[in-house]
Design a protein that fits this description.
single chain; seven-stranded mixed sheet; globular
């Protein structure tokens, strides 16, 4: 979804009060966001001591400024999370007026509840760490579990990549679509896509034995249709690969997948290559590995304009509700 970047924005009163900084997790995305806002990326040194400790130096005045730190907590997760915390601590001690943590991909989101005794709720721990480090607001995208917003005692703006993905689907896929949720937990997300695209809805009932998917059953009709699997992230690619096989067995003409976060751990890229998926559409919340970037099945869409528009509206104290599509 494209947003018009107003050339006069940098001339408005208060614009010079806006600063955007980035860690090392996804600097290209931060640069695209700054290009949308027509401001330079903030100057900061984010490096390492010889033993691996993170060292940060903010190289410009931020006293009283409205500061946004762009840092997805992607792989290496703990390194990038710690970078974000140290950068925010540096900004807090430099007397920044308001610090917003812009986290396009929120790690530990799959640990949002106790699924067995004596297990952590790590998503809540991360929320507490962010607040302690100095975050006064969080801007994130496509949380694995929406209730994570309730783990914070500070404002959380939760965006969705749906506008960006919808534009691509409408332009590149046939109109007789079947929108597919790869599990029962994603039904609400898939239903929203199906409603906007006026397509049919199908659900895959996924059964697990421990961490292993033991079987899948299709609920709904995909015969003769182009099937699009909708999910928030792709990790190993196993679920998408198995789902594509199930859909093709039930007569789908072709199978695509649209996900927001390309985690793509382990041998996932090879799994995607060898699968029956015709394409995997994802976004740049997480930078791709060289192997993933070279895969001709993977197409990356940018969410920089969406995040940039949210930052602009938050800074100007305008409504961002129209972005929560």
């Amino acid at each position: 979804m494209a947003y018009r970047c107003m050339e006069s924005f940098h001339m408005r009163s208060g614009q010079m009060n806006l600063k955007v900084f980035s860690g090392n997790a996804n600097r290209p995305l931060a640069e695209k966001i700054c290009a949308y806002l027509n401001i330079p990326l903030g100057q900061a040194s984010v490096g390492r001591f010889s033993d691996g400790e993170i060292i940060v130096e903010i190289k410009e005045n931020v006293r009283g400024r409205d500061v946004y730190v762009i840092q997805p907590t992607c792989r290496p997760v703990n390194e990038n999370l710690m970078e974000l915390l140290v950068v925010m601590d540096a900004l807090k001690r430099a007397s920044a007026g308001c610090i917003t943590a812009v986290i396009p991909y929120y790690a530990y989101a799959r640990q949002d509840s106790k699924i067995a005794p004596r297990m952590p709720i790590a998503a809540k721990l991360v929320a507490d760490l962010l607040s302690t480090a100095g975050a006064q607001r969080v801007l994130t995208m496509d949380l694995h579990a929406g209730q994570i917003q309730g783990f914070f005692d500070i404002p959380v703006d939760h965006l969705y990549a749906k506008p960006v993905l919808l534009d691509y689907i409408k332009t590149h896929f046939a109109p007789d679509l079947a929108i597919v949720s790869p599990d029962t937990g994603g039904v609400e997300r898939a239903r929203a896509f199906a409603r906007h695209l006026q397509g049919s809805l199908a659900i895959i009932d996924k059964r697990r034995e421990g961490a292993i998917v033991s079987g899948m059953t299709l609920i709904g009709n995909v015969w003769g249709k182009e099937a699009v699997i909708i999910d928030d992230l792709v990790n190993t690619g196993a679920t998408l690969s198995m789902a594509a096989e199930v859909l093709m067995r039930h007569g789908a003409r072709a199978v695509h997948a649209c996900v927001t976060h390309p985690v793509l751990a382990g041998d996932s890229v090879q799994t995607i290559k060898n699968s029956l998926l015709r394409s995997l559409i994802t976004t740049d919340t997480i930078p791709l590995s060289p192997e993933a970037a070279a895969c001709d099945k993977i197409k990356v869409l940018s969410v920089a304009a969406l995040l940039g528009e949210a930052i602009r509206r938050i800074h100007q104290q305008d409504s961002v509700s129209s972005l929560f599509v």
